[in-house]
Amino acid sequence: MKSIFKITILALVLVSFASCQKNSRPNYEFMPNMYESVGYEAYQESDAFANGIEAQLPAEGSISRGHIPMDIDGTNDGYLLAKETLKSPLDSTQVDYSRGGPLYVIYCGICHGNKGDGAGNLVKREKLLGVPSYADVGRAITEGSIYHTVYYGKNAMGSYANQLNEEERWQVVAYVLQLKADLEK
User: Fold this and answer.
1) 128-176, pLDDT tens digit by residue?
2) How far apart are CA 99 and CA 128, in angstroms?
3) How far apart are CA 18 and CA 104, in angstroms?
4) Helix, strand, coil % (nearest 5) of the chain?
5) Would residue 102 be called left, alpha or beta, if left means φ above 0 and alpha means ψ between -120 and 50 degrees?
6) Sequence-separated contacts (24+) of 157-166 with Cβ below 8 Å
7) Which of 7, 51, 60, 63 has a 20 to 30 A CA-CA distance from 103?
8) CA nearest 131: which of 148, 147, 144, 114?
9) How large a percentage of the chain has pLDDT more than 90?
10) Per-residue DSSP letters for 4-42?
11) Measured distance CA(30)–CA(154) in Å, rounded
12) With the CA atoms of 132, 134, 140 and 142 taken in that order, what torsion angle do they form, in degrees rounded to the nearest 10?
């Protein structure tokens, strides 16, 4: 009998708490700024910084997450230096043509052609002219020169450093060298 009485009292307490809930008005929030942060305009005035605006430049010498800077400049001298000295960090077991091939087709094939013959869709439609084949005489490309060109771009070709990470760039370089070897046979 005593346990039925305790269960009844407990049920009445729980029902009374549930009946006090009022959905027509919001409940109290503890530290609401944790849930609904205050939005700031990037270029509004601020007393927190010396120059008086919210937006600040990144700290000097900082590097974006996932970005590995290249030690060679994007100049013609840097291109020649890369052509002579830059070597692939991938060994023969890490080179994967099944990965480099699709990346090449996506990013390079539109201009250079899927076979590296310089006859991509943009060249066929005469949107770009003068894209050479990898097998052209005097086209002495090396893995360093290809990587430098993919990283910085060259002539009408833009940089693909933002689209491809370092490992993917080296996979594309290996695939381009394979295409060059196939064309020269």
Assistant:
1) 888 888 888 777 889 999 999 999 999 888 999 889 999 999 999 999 9
2) 27
3) 63
4) 40, 0, 55
5) alpha
6) 157/111, 160/107, 163/107, 164/103, 164/107, 165/66, 166/68
7) 63
8) 114
9) 35
10) HHHHHHHHHHHHHHHHT--TTSPPP-SSGGGTSPPP--T
11) 57
12) 120
Phi (first) and psi of residue 140, to 5 degrees: -90, 80
* pLDDT at position 27 over 70: no
Tokens read off for 156: 């009408």
Q: Give the Å distances, CA to CA, from 40 to 2, 37, 125, 149.
A: 61, 9, 48, 40
**pLDDT band at residue 20 using 50, 70 and 90 as cut-offs:** low
Length of the chain: 185
For the whole prediction, is pTM greater than 0.90?
no
Structure-block tokens of residue 30: 């503890």
For residue 57, is pLDDT > 90? no
Whole-Å CA distances, 185 to 134, 171, 172, 180? 12, 22, 20, 9
Residue with tokens 């590296």: 116
Q: Which two tokens stand for residue 60?
A: 């000097």
Instruction: List alpha helices for 20-112, DSSP H.
Output: 76-85, 97-107, 109-112
Contact 135, 108 (CB under 8 A): no
